[in-house]
Amino acid sequence: MVELALCIAVVAIAMVAIIGVLPAGLGVQKLNREETIIDQDATLLMEAIRNGATGFDDLTNYLDYVIITNQPVSSGALSTYTYKGPLFKWPTTPVPTALEFPQQILGLLSLPQVDYSKLGTNEVGQTNLNFVMAQFRAFSGALDEKVLPQVRGDTIADLKLDQAFRYRLNVEIVPVFSHPTNQTDLVNLFQQRVLANTLYDVRLTFQWPVFGTKIPADVGGNFKSYRTQVSGRMSRLQIPLLGTNDVFAPDSNIYLRRLVPDLTTPPAALSAYQPKS
Q: Which SS3 state, helix, strand or coil, does residue 196 take?
């Protein structure tokens, strides 16, 4: 009996240790799965932004909302513009404008954080700072978390939307603008402005998991950042489907922009810095 009791005690101790490690193992497995999804989605979104892509027609299926915080340098006053994905249930009223076209979403995600487009004009003081934050449901991952737009409103479809893996995305597109070595050298100033209009740092920061239903939602402590540089320029985005060439973001004064990945002639606004012969 004594030996049997000792055996039971040893097995019990071992089982307690195994059961104690099991939750940690499951947590690591869950984190690895989430990081894999983030890696795959980051590749897709980075390529869409850096290549100026406009053919991501299903992008609207996965967007919850985009929040743009705009701050003109001249005034310092903050303005916030909010847009929702067509499948996202907005929890409060009024409901913001829905983004119906993927070009609109990519245009908002491509807004430069520092807008140097007015350099060289009399409107330098109108330079804008843009802070872009979006919430997405994962593009990749389990099939049972995906829903077809045409079955929106079905109980099972709504459940899939509610249970889908979500993350917050912060987009930073910053012109590479080095300090002029000679403030009186027009050639040097011109070169700095050309650099600021043809080379951009692009950084995507993902935060997850997402908690609650408030806007913006709370997020956990997991995050990953991805960074690259793009040689190109910012171009005003055109959406022929909307019947106009100069397209504004819905209900705001923010221009839709996208990165065009080819070097072109610097904008006319830089002509003031061209060297005089």
A: helix
| Residue whose entry in the numeric block shows the structure tokens 């995050």 | 223
Q: What is the 3-state secondary structure (H, E, C) of 10-56?
A: HHHHHHHHHHHHHHHHHHHHHHHHHHHHHHHHHHHHHHHHHCCCCCC
Read off the pTM. 0.77
In this structure, which amino acid lies at residue 253?
N
pLDDT in tens, 238-250: 665 555 555 667 7
Residue 153: left (phi > 0), alpha (psi -120 to 50), or beta?
left
Residues 97, 85: Cα–Cα separation, whole Å: 9
d(CA 178, CA 116): 13
Joined tokens for residue 55: 């053919």
Euclidean distance between CA atoms 169 and 41, whole angstroms: 11
Residues 6+ apart with CB under 8 A from 175: 112, 114, 116, 195, 196, 197, 199, 200, 201
d(CA 212, CA 96): 19
Q: What is the pLDDT of residue 188?
A: 61
Looking only at the bridges linking them, the beta strands covering 97-98 and 79-84 are: parallel
Write out pLDDT tens, residues 26-65.
667 788 889 999 999 999 999 888 887 667 888 888 999 9
